Amino acid sequence: MLVDSPPEPRAETAPAPPSRRAIRSLGLLLSLVVLALVALASIAIGAKGLSPAQVWHGLFHDSGTYADVVVGDRISRTVLGLLAGAALGLSGAVLQALTRNPLADPGLLGINAGASAAVVTAITFFGVTSLSGYVWFAFVGAAGVGALVWFLGGSRSATPVRLVLAGTAISAALYGYLQAVMITDNAALGKMRFWTVGSLASATDGTVVQVLPFFAVGTVLALALARPLNAMAMGDDTARALGANLNRTRALSMVAATVLCGAATAACGPIVFVGLMVPHVVRSFTGPDLRWILPYATVLSPVLLLGADVVGRIVARPAELQVGIVTAVLGGPVFIFLVRRRRTAQL
């Protein structure tokens, strides 16, 4: 008589680990939550203390009280911080990919120097005194230097090394001009002293409206360049084999970086470390894929900029510490630590 053997126990299949894409998507969602919290903190916290009730009333009512006016100013400041932070992060990520240099930032190609030189020229020779006037001169200066760097770098035959060398040379010349004018013109020195530090304190609805179109165009263009820049990261020959147009990609990358950084610098002044540090940090956990680096930099750069702005309002009460000073003080030691980590410093 045959006896049926007991059925063999089924091996339990372990649940599949979450894909890397899912983890990145979740991280991006969490980054958006953090950005929303920092934006709320930027509206609620300032050099002048307001109660939660006053902040709430200022957000949803406009009765013209002092608290409502303060909250309204903070909203403009926060919106400009969101736009400028995203622009600096995106431009830094694009330039690091374009030059194949993880330590590149918008200042490497002379964009900040061009904007600064244009502003001091406007103050000294044209008598411009308002921030709304600075915006257009700064943007034209940044765009002009971007075009000059592209021309001196070889235009259609431009390479990352040529672009960096051209940008460095032009930056040195423009900063020499900047110092010469400021030394000989005390009025220009006094007005430029505040602008060159970098600040969100002068943000107005008008400033946001003026630079918003440039931010929008530059952001769309930068995000659209993710795939061709990924191909270029593997070398020129491989990029050509994959169908990438190197000259067009480099030219459009210069345009995107110039538009984004020029608009941010025009509205806030030259703010350091945001465009350099955030893409560098993001690359450590996303890898070299720009399809993830660019969105993460767009979200996390405003987190750093607005967070630094809030810190500057708290530590110097009842006065304020400009955000450019805070990012430099906080960013320097952190960036030195990150650069010493080999994994982070690699593209």
Features:
about 350 residues; about 0% strand; disordered C terminus; about 75% helix; mainly alpha; single chain; 15 helices
Describe the structure.
This protein has helices spanning 20-44, 52-60, 66-99, 111-126, 131-152, 160-184, 186-197, 205-224, 226-232, 236-241, 246-268, 274-286, 290-315, 323-339, 342-345. It is built from 15 helices and no strands. The protein has 347 residues and is an all-alpha fold. Mean pLDDT is 83; it is low at 342-347.
Q: How much helix, percentage-wise, in residues?
A: over 70%
Largest sheet: none
Class computed from helices, strands and strand pairing: mainly alpha
Helix-strand topology string: HHHHHHHHHHHHHHH
Averaged pLDDT: 83
Radius of gyration: 24 Å
Overall body shape: globular
Instruction: Give the helix tally.
Output: 15
The rounded distance between the terminal residues' Cα atoms is: 71 Å
- Compute the number of strand runs: 0
| Regions with little confidence, pLDDT below 50 for 5+ residues | 342-347
Q: Roughly what fraction of the amino acids lie in strands?
A: under 5%
